[in-house]
Each structure stands twice: as C-alpha cells, then as structure tokens.
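# nightly structure sweep
# worker-07 picked up a monomer target from the shared queue
# config: single-sequence mode, recycle default, output format = structure tokens
# input follows
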Amino acid sequence: METTPLYVLRQPDGTFKYYVDPDYAKDQGVNPDKLICVDIPSSIYANGTVDDLSTFIAKEIEKLGQP
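# output follows
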C-alpha cells in the first residue's frame, strides 16, 4: 500500500494541526520534536474527506500510544 507521510502536532485542546513538511512546520515556529509522523494511505490522502483523515490519524496515534 502506498502512503504519504503527514506530520501531526497535537494541540493542548486535543485537536490536530497537519503539516506536509517538517521544515515548513519549523518555519511556523513548531518544535519538530513535537511532530508525530503518520503514514496516510494514498487513497485517504487523495480522495478522503477531512473527517476520514482525522479519524485515521486519531486511530494511528492511539496505536502509537501517544497522549
């Protein structure tokens, strides 16, 4: 299965901010050590809804044991 990496920052309120490039996130003032890399299946990345993406990311982060 082909995937696309997406870098996720979990906000204190539990929401997520998405970045396609950790360097861009760093340019925006984000500490790269706080980013979680999630490999998104190409089918979701290209054709999924924002809800599909958010649900997939939440499940993957839960699997990783991230708070």
